[in-house]
Specification:
This protein is of the alpha+beta class. It is about 15% helix and about 15% strand. The chain has 2 helices and 4 strands. Strands 1-4 form a two-stranded antiparallel ribbon. The protein has a two-stranded antiparallel sheet with strand order 2-3. The longest helix has 12 residues.
Length: about 120
């Protein structure tokens, strides 16, 4: 048989906060018996379904890792209207472990030596 790729496009509602979601996936296809010698169809096609792994979309799927040569200058150029301050409690034994977990969860990239 042949192998191929399948792509899905999911539109994000930008008025809603980013939340993880899961989609059930199923491949639907038609099977036709073919004579290997002649390549001619031997029967009518019949529908078949095959369950696939669920697709999970999270915040990290909506972020791209981008190298920023001067993060501080880029941050300051955005202005304060784009800034959001919030406090969170993270249950990690070290600051390094907390940073690594947040970076991995959000798909971010540490910069200016903050990843060590």
């Amino acid at each position: 048989g042949e192998t191929g790729n399948c792509f899905a496009v999911v539109e994000r509602n930008t008025s809603e906060s980013i939340a993880s979601c899961r989609f059930n996936c199923e491949m639907k296809f038609a099977i036709t018996q073919v004579d290997p010698a002649t390549g001619e169809e031997e029967s009518e096609p019949y529908d078949e379904e095959y369950p696939l792994e669920d697709l999970e979309v999270s915040a990290s799927d909506l972020m791209a890792r981008v190298a920023v040569p001067d993060f501080r200058a880029a941050w300051e150029s955005m202005g304060h209207d784009k800034e959001v301050l919030a406090k969170f409690a993270l249950e990690f034994k070290t600051q390094e472990a907390a940073v690594a977990a947040v970076v991995a969860h959000l798909g971010m990239q540490p910069c200016d030596g903050t990843g060590t």
